[in-house]
Amino acid sequence: MRQRSSFGSVLLCTFFLGCAFDVAHIQYRQSQFTPVPEFPKYIVMKDSVEITEGPCAYYSRKLRQGTTWDFVGTIPEGEIYKPRDQVLTIEASHVYEAYLVLSNDSLIGFYLPVEGSFAALPSPRKLPIEVKRGG
Fold it and tell me: What DSSP line would sit under 65-132, residue for residue?
């Protein structure tokens, strides 16, 4: 009987330890996305930039030099740019696909397309970008 009780306790502990806990959070809020019919412009990163604050505080993210980002729409907070040749995610206890949100050539946060939400940076960050017309 005692052996069964010990086995049950071990099994129960293993079950609880194996469960995913949401210990790190990213603050985001719903935002109304308005798509653009075509890609009227895009940006190219002139230099690499490492983001370590806000939603990227848990795991820093590097926006690589030479990468291209297509203007795909707007939200009330700014313009949304989807990566063409770089995968961008932000992570905490979960991994979120992310697009850049810019206002006046400054990164102000990230649009999370699956969640339809905006995750803000603590303060705007000027990006070394070149704006190009057409798709």
Answer: TT-EEEEEEEETTEEEEEESSS--EEESSSEEE-EEEEETTEEEEEEETTTTEEEEEEEEEE--EEEE
Residue type, 64: R
pLDDT of 113: 96
Average pLDDT, rounded, for the chain: 84
Which residues, 6+ apart, have CB-to-CB distance to 39 below 8 Å?
A: 70, 71, 72, 134, 135
Phi, psi for 3 (deg, rounded to 5): -65, -40
pTM across the whole model: 0.79
| Domain regions of the chain by residue span | 23-133
